[in-house]
């Protein structure tokens, strides 16, 4: 009788342990531009593994600073290499786990009802003249990746001195998108994937990739947070199913 009871108790304990393992939570700090795609990827991951995902979306710069200050996170997904390198150098990212997963495009957007037609953007396009007396919304060019890519494009074409004073710098690419959606500015510079998810703006031009560094999204585990669930999540985002979701939202998949 005692042996049977102990056996039943052990089975129950194992069952509870397995349930607890399935219920592990993965905290993901991810670039704001990943919001829609990563939400869907996370839902698919949870359905497949039982692990839940708690995402926090913001500019990569802001998230990197939060990690540096000790905010709890398991996975970091940046919209550029700079902030992943920043945390890696600070030994806050496990370098053996990081990889480059996605790419994107840099586009010029305008409110949906604008009369501006398609523009073939290149190094000779006078962006300052296009904006006129108005401002161009994009991420803060000193820290937010999308703003930094735009600044690079303007510097390489010799236009930054003229454009610099016309920037409406925001705390993230989605904040820049919102300014254009509300018609508060006539133009914005965001990623192609952000423009694609909005029904209130239209893409009027795409910056050639030669005008800025490749838009790269590296993923990696926060040092000391290499849990089985976090490792499983990093493995999952590289599966064909997850890559298909990212591609559906317009990301270039490596």
Automatic annotation (TrEMBL):
<dbReference type="GO" id="GO:1901359">
    <property type="term" value="F:tungstate binding"/>
</dbReference>
<keyword id="KW-0479">Metal-binding</keyword>
<dbReference type="GO" id="GO:0046872">
    <property type="term" value="F:metal ion binding"/>
</dbReference>
<feature type="binding site">
    <location>
        <position position="60"/>
    </location>
    <ligand>
        <name>molybdate</name>
    </ligand>
</feature>
<feature type="binding site">
    <location>
        <position position="33"/>
    </location>
    <ligand>
        <name>molybdate</name>
    </ligand>
</feature>
<dbReference type="GO" id="GO:0030288">
    <property type="term" value="C:outer membrane-bounded periplasmic space"/>
</dbReference>
<dbReference type="InterPro" id="IPR005950">
    <property type="entry name" value="ModA"/>
</dbReference>
<protein>
    <submittedName>
        <fullName>Molybdate ABC transporter substrate-binding protein</fullName>
    </submittedName>
</protein>
<dbReference type="GO" id="GO:0030973">
    <property type="term" value="F:molybdate ion binding"/>
</dbReference>
<comment type="subunit">
    <text>The complex is composed of two ATP-binding proteins (ModC), two transmembrane proteins (ModB) and a solute-binding protein (ModA).</text>
</comment>
<dbReference type="Pfam" id="PF13531">
    <property type="entry name" value="SBP_bac_11"/>
</dbReference>
<dbReference type="GO" id="GO:0015689">
    <property type="term" value="P:molybdate ion transport"/>
</dbReference>
<comment type="similarity">
    <text>Belongs to the bacterial solute-binding protein ModA family.</text>
</comment>
<feature type="signal peptide">
    <location>
        <begin position="1"/>
        <end position="23"/>
    </location>
</feature>
<feature type="binding site">
    <location>
        <position position="191"/>
    </location>
    <ligand>
        <name>molybdate</name>
    </ligand>
</feature>
<feature type="binding site">
    <location>
        <position position="173"/>
    </location>
    <ligand>
        <name>molybdate</name>
    </ligand>
</feature>
<dbReference type="InterPro" id="IPR050682">
    <property type="entry name" value="ModA/WtpA"/>
</dbReference>
<keyword id="KW-0500">Molybdenum</keyword>
<keyword id="KW-0732">Signal</keyword>
